[in-house]
Amino acid sequence: MNWKSFIVGAAVGILSGYATREIILKKSKVSPEKVLENVKKKFTQTGPITGSWIHMAAEPYEKHDIHYQVYKGGISKNIDGVNEQYEFTADASTGTLIDVQRLSAS
To answer: What are the beta bridge partners of residue 52?
Structure first.
């Protein structure tokens, strides 16, 4: 076996593996559990959370003519005896919050 052929073959294999890995990572989604964990960390900076939920399936979403696959969920907080509820929308590919809306205070 020729060493030159072996080295070229190994280099092609390594590059192909790296390219495949990058393609898979770009197309993969962040788990909904991880998204909810990150959102809860952000919300606990302003006080304790009393409840949270997230839809486990990504769904299409459009904002400012940009199309996303998103997870939707909610957070409940009790601030000074007032129950506040928020709904959030997070990008399924990156986990980044796209939108947060306050639903009600009771």
So the answer is: 75
